[in-house]
Design a protein that fits this description.
Helix content is 29%, strand content 18%. By secondary structure, the protein is an alpha/beta fold. Helix 2 (12-18) packs across helix 10 and helix 5 (126-141) packs parallel to helix 7 (179-188). It is globular.
Length: 748
């Protein structure tokens, strides 16, 4: 198919029409030219394809499909292969249902635990989000189906999400909020990128040429099309000029007419419209070229979902209470045991094929008695239920409470107001701990919660939103048929007030100030040396691992060189299991204010009892760099960087270090405002400046009296602009101007 020739055959009106959706889920077709519409569908943890009789808003009546664990859960696997395999299954389902693009993954950073959509976002850390997203995208697209990574960018709350402005520094964007998208583009090339609703520093994401063209296409090399989030278009012509190709779901033709008028008036170059149309046609015909027949075997896919769910749940605490034994008398308490919460609300809601609850499997696993205790769908204390729960618990050897967040507590469209569980749950858990029996809490939630009872219970299993097979997965982990191997991809703070964005979330008026900068999640808690409930990367196992023999391939690196890190991991326990090894880099140079440590690598390894394997991780130069906003570039500093290997961010087991050399510091901007300290620090200007100002320096710092220079005066000189020498050094305007000329020559 000659796309350019096809574009030349189109009328202006036809070109404009292709740039918006035909309806809620289809692109526009042009039968005259043999251009078919193609269908996109919500994901990312299942296929939410709308049935033929679905409403025009695209909110209801989706087909029967398999609900996989949500991203809050799959991220805890830290497993690229798992994400790839899940993507393969979903890609095959899309082929079976004639869907061209699956809308996901969602990689926005978990800036605050209150964000209502955190359940479908991957992590607070960009390394985890980017690596897992790239694996998922490669899996889906290996089946000839596209993805739409979203929401680009800085969409970290639901409050005023369609108008509010995320106000933040370019450094924070580059180091925290962009890298997941950048990694996915460079490692997986998603067919589409979905731009977000919000404004960034006052500019709509859908209208920002710096975001959509300069960064996404020119810097990162993105080759696909950019589509809008549903209803995210403000000014269609500005958006098209910025690089936003496809408007979804379309504006009933009104925006198409704006495009036509803008081209005719010369306000929008014809070439920009043609480029957008070419990108859309490439997607349409790419779908056609990759079409094949597939079967959607829901039962087989459901078993794959169960296997994934077992690897995603996180054992947060275990004081020799788990695994449960089949002969033990166990009380199951809580509405979530019977009616589990297995997915989030909103556009990712899947019409699940067959949901199993933990309680429905009770007879298979052990001697279990059930009492509801509290409802799963609301915060309401029911005294009769509580009495029954306490009575049932008194007759048991161990107590398992199934707690969590009801659907109404977290959903797309609004943010949480607090981090607490429903009060009825917290109160009953505390009453059960007073019985003096071992208590295990199983949590079903999409984001962190406060746990005022954490010290009183003996076990906590974070099941997250585990998909429709949550029942099988939870029971296998509780009874030791599977070994917990999940790790937290987000920090669980002690309380909401501890969170980095607490004073700036959700914002004032139409603006949200990202005042914490790059200190998001564990970066903040580590810098503050703050206690947390459970740290980033934390997760327990029924076996024990030992880390040994750390090796670093290159211990002295130039500015363009990376290094390879390897170590041995041994399963010294009695049960097979999977360990997630985490590699953190700690900048020890002290040149600029940096996070204490940052995750730059991770790897999972499955080990039988007594088995040892070597784990290897690569560190590229970017792992040591930070974004210099003033000079608009990535850079690192000369000096020592510590490499920390751990099982969590707060359980570092091995350390080594490398030295980086040859990194040139940025050259000072030479004008009358340049600080003297900058001139002294630059090797090209230091000698000249010291020679020219020798007399002034001695007089100003007290050095001419052969005494130790006054520290206060030295610091004043360091931060003194060149122009201040008129007042303090006796220099004339002409002398200062001559110095500026000489200094500029030195930097050529």
């Amino acid at each position: 198919m000659n796309i350019k020739e096809l574009v030349r055959e189109m009328t202006l009106e036809e070109k404009a029409s292709l740039c918006s959706g035909q309806d809620f889920w289809h692109t526009q077709g042009l039968p005259r030219l043999g251009i078919p519409p193609v269908m996109v569908s919500d994901g990312p943890h299942g296929l939410r394809k709308q049935a033929d009789e679905a409403d025009h808003l695209g909110l209801h009546n989706s087909i029967d499909a398999v609900c996989f664990p949500a991203a809050c859960a799959t991220s805890a696997s830290f497993d690229r292969q798992l994400m790839y395999d899940m993507g393969v299954v979903l890609g095959k389902e899309c082929q079976a249902e004639e869907v061209s693009v699956l809308l996901g993954p969602a990689v926005n950073i978990k800036r605050s635990p209150l964000c209502g959509r955190n359940f479908e976002y991957i992590s607070e850390d960009p390394c985890v989000a980017g690596e897992l997203a790239a694996a998922y995208i490669n899996g889906v697209q290996s089946q000839g189906v596209g993805t739409s990574i979203k929401h680009f960018a800085a969409n970290n709350q639901e409050h005023q999400r369609m108008y509010g402005s995320s106000d933040l520094s370019e450094q924070a964007l580059r180091e925290i909020y962009f890298p997941a998208f950048e990694t996915a583009v460079k490692k997986a090339q998603p067919w589409t990128v979905m731009c977000s609703y919000n404004r960034i520093n006052g500019v709509y994401a859908s209208e920002d040429p710096w975001l959509l063209t300069q960064v996404l296409r020119e810097e990162w090399g993105f080759k696909g099309l950019v589509m809008s989030d549903w209803g995210a278009v403000s000014d269609r012509v500005k958006g098209l000029a910025a690089g936003m190709d496809l408007e979804m779901p379309g504006g009933n033709g009104s925006n198409d007419q704006q495009i036509v008028e803008a081209v005719r008036s010369g306000r929008l170059p014809q070439e920009q419209l043609d480029q957008a149309v070419e990108r859309i046609l490439n997607l349409v015909f790419r779908h056609g070229d990759n079409r094949r027949k597939e079967s959607f075997d829901r039962e087989a896919d459901r078993q794959k979902a169960a296997d994934i769910a077992r690897q995603c749940m996180v054992l947060l605490k275990n004081q020799q209470v788990l695994p449960l034994k089949q002969e033990e008398r166990v009380a199951f308490i809580g509405g979530f045991a019977k009616t589990p919460r297995y997915q989030g609300g909103g556009s990712s809601h899947i019409n699940a094929h067959r949901v199993t609850s933990p309680l429905s499997l009770a007879d298979v696993y052990g001697t279990i008695q059930y009492a509801q205790g509290f409802p799963a769908d609301r915060d309401e204390r029911i005294s009769e239920w509580e009495k029954e729960a306490l009575k049932t618990a008194e007759q048991a050897e161990k107590i398992v409470v199934f707690a969590g967040l009801p659907d109404s507590f977290e959903s797309e469209g609004y943010d949480r107001r607090h981090m607490r569980l429903p009060q009825c749950q917290d109160q009953l858990i505390q009453r059960l701990t007073a019985l003096g029996k071992p208590v295990v809490v199983v949590l079903q939630n999409g984001s962190p919660v406060e746990m005022p009872w954490a010290e009183q219970v003996q076990g906590i299993l974070e099941a997250y939103l585990g998909g429709e097979t949550v029942g099988e997965a939870v029971m296998d982990l509780l009874y030791g048929k599977a070994n917990p191997c999940g790790k937290l991809a987000e920090t669980f703070p002690v309380k909401l007030e501890d969170t980095p964005s607490y004073l700036n979330f959700p914002g004032i008026g139409h603006h949200t100030r990202y005042g914490e900068g790059v200190f998001v999640g564990y970066r903040y808690y580590d810098a503050k040396k703050m206690p947390v409930l459970f740290p980033f990367g934390h997760g327990l196992s029924y076996t024990t691992y030992r880390y040994d023999n750390l090796k670093i391939s290159r211990k002295v690196c130039g500015p363009t060189e990376g290094t390879t890190v390897s170590l041995e991991v041994t399963n010294v326990g009695r049960m097979a299991g999977k360990e997630v090894v985490q590699l953190y880099v700690a900048d020890q140079t002290g040149a600029v204010a940096r996070p204490v440590q940052e995750l730059k690598g991770f790897a999972g390894v499955f080990l039988n009892p007594g088995e040892t394997q070597t784990v290897t991780m690569e560190l590229e130069p970017r792992a040591f760099e930070w974004f210099d906003e003033e000079n608009g570039c990535w850079r690192s500093n000369d000096g020592v960087y510590q490499l920390r290997i751990g099982s969590s961010s707060r359980n570092i087991l091995l350390t080594g270090e490398i030295t980086r050399k040859g990194n040139r510091p940025p050259l000072p901007v030479i004008d009358e405002d340049v600080q003297l300290g900058e001139l002294f620090a630059c090797e090209k200007t230091a000698g000249y400046t010291q020679e020219k100002l020798a007399g002034f320096l001695k007089a100003f710092t007290g050095g001419e009296k052969e005494e130790t220079p006054d520290e206060m005066m030295l610091q004043m000189v360091k931060y003194m602009p060149l122009r201040a020498l008129r007042s303090f050094g006796g220099l004339t305007n002409r002398q200062i101007s001559e110095m500026v000329k000489d200094l500029k020559k030195l930097l050529i």
